[in-house]
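#struct-help
A.M.: can someone run this one for me? Single chain, 263 residues.
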Amino acid sequence: MSKNLIPAQRIEQIRAYLQAHSTVSNTELVELLQVSEATIRRDLEWLEKQGVLERTHGGAILSQSMSVEPEYAARALAHPDEKREIGAAAATLIEEGDTIFINSGTTTTEVLQSIPRRAKVTVITNNVSAAEIHDARFELILLGGTYYPRSNAVVGHLATENLRRLNAKKTFIGADGISLKYGYTVPSNPEAELVRLMIEHTHGLVIVVADSSKWGVVSNFQVARIDEAQMLVTDDRFTRAARGELKARGVNVVVAGATRARR
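D.P.: on it. Structure tokens below:
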């Protein structure tokens, strides 16, 4: 690549690289564009102001927007193997005697399905899929509220009022987006309000469960800042660089299915 590119051409090359790879380091861009790291930093700063990317320590990630929530059935078809493995790994974090909150979502449904049926725990959730676990011996509390079919969940005033009377030791959150700048986000405001209340009423770990496709995605409503969760359970395609960014912010990343053969 010639180092005689004008700024507009460099910007377009950076944009194209991120579209293809989602993440990039400053070093990679220096080699690709044959310019100084100071020039790369200025270009990335400009692109961040345009909302194209989010700068990280030593690089950048592509900003992806989710403004409309996909239908529950469609989301269930995306990354099913990863979600099952994440659910199984997350369920091992539940201890005898725990009271836990679990919000709606296809990945949190896998957490619910992975809880041992005879576990001595109490599960409190707005996830309607929990009602399909007919053989559970653990205590299951379904929050009342207005049914929201797009998320297969209950939300609204009744759900939040019920939740205000409850507390939990751990909370498991499914998020549609994970961004260093914008935190954990979801497309529905009623769901966001409920999750924020779950976090407020948790006196132990806040655990996010999300596959690697959520990294760099920003949806409409924040449920928590990055450092408000102590742990992320994700899949083995979540990059080492991304794990490092979260670790630097106090988030422990647990990788599920690390030995799974790639298809």
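A.M.: thanks! The radius of gyration is 20 Å.
D.P.: also worth noting: The chain is about 35% helix and 25% strand.
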